[in-house]
């Protein structure tokens, strides 16, 4: 068994255990393998193991890597997207997790390319984090729904780094509550998805309702020096 296969098996076990502790243990959870800094060969190996949801942070790096990947995978953009890179991004990515402004949504919608999108919310209020403030999510959702080519899946957030995963719980809980409030408002279709949880806090994210996990180091291993 390869190192990746071993890590994947351990990770899936932990995901299953966390689901059992959650309020909805039968919900599907999508594992997005974050391959930033890893070569195309790692994406190919991931695909052979059934990991076909591949996350990348940078548009240019991902495009170059994708040219070498023969496996059929779905590319997720999980990093910040600048509007001047939208035309390049839609050539590859089918899912964008980091929609953080009406202007970006307008640029994505103007391409006419069908995309699944998540609205990024800066729940913690950290200045270093991208995303709309919680009070701005409803407006961002209306902006997204104005574009027929954009299918809003749900909300995304990043919790502040902390060695204690429990420190992330209030952030993830609030994102779920924001989503639930939007659904109760009934201004459009329900938002089924919450993209939250990374290598250090994914179990807490699952317990709080995550449907999409963005896992890098814990799954793919450490990035070789110079590749990050």
Helix content, binned percent? 25-40%
How many H/I helical runs?
Answer: 9
Output the helix-strand order.
Answer: HEHEHEHEHEHEHEHEH
Query: Strand order of the main beta sheet, please?
Result: 7-6-5-4-3-2-1-8
Distance between the termini: 26 Å
- The helix/strand class is alpha/beta
**Cα-atom radius of gyration:** 17 Å
Largest sheet: 8 strands, parallel
Unreliable sequence segments: none
Shape: globular
Count of separate structural domains: 1
CATH-assigned homologous superfamily = Alanine racemase
Which strand-content bin applies to the residues?
Answer: 15-25%
| CATH architecture name | Alpha-Beta Barrel
Average pLDDT, rounded to a whole number, is 96
- For the record, the CATH class is Alpha Beta
> Would you report the number of β strands?
8
- Classify the fold: give the CATH topology: TIM Barrel
């Amino acid at each position: 068994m390869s190192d990746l296969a071993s890590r994947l098996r351990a990770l899936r076990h932990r995901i299953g255990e966390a689901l059992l502790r959650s309020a909805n243990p039968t919900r599907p959870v999508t594992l997005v393998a974050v391959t930033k800094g890893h070569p195309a060969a790692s994406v190919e190996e991931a695909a052979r193991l059934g990991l076909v949801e591949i996350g990348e942070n940078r548009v240019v790096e991902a495009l170059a890597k994708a040219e070498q990947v023969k496996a059929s995978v779905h590319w997720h953009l999980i990093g910040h997207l600048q509007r001047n890179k939208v035309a390049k991004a839609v050539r590859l990515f089918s899912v964008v997790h980091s929609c953080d402004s009406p202007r970006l949504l307008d640029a994505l919608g103007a391409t006419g390319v069908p995309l699944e999108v998540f609205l990024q919310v800066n729940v913690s209020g950290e200045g270093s984090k991208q995303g709309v403030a919680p009070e701005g999510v409803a407006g961002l959702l209306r902006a997204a729904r104005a574009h027929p080519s954009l299918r809003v899946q749900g909300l995304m957030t990043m919790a502040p780094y902390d060695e204690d995963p429990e420190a992330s719980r209030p952030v993830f809980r609030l994102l779920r509550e924001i989503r639930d409030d939007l659904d109760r408002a009934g201004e459009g279709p329900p938002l089924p998805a919450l993209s939250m949880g990374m290598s250090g806090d994914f179990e807490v994210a699952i317990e709080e309702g995550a449907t999409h996990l963005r896992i890098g180091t814990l799954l793919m291993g450490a990035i070789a020096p110079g590749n990050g």
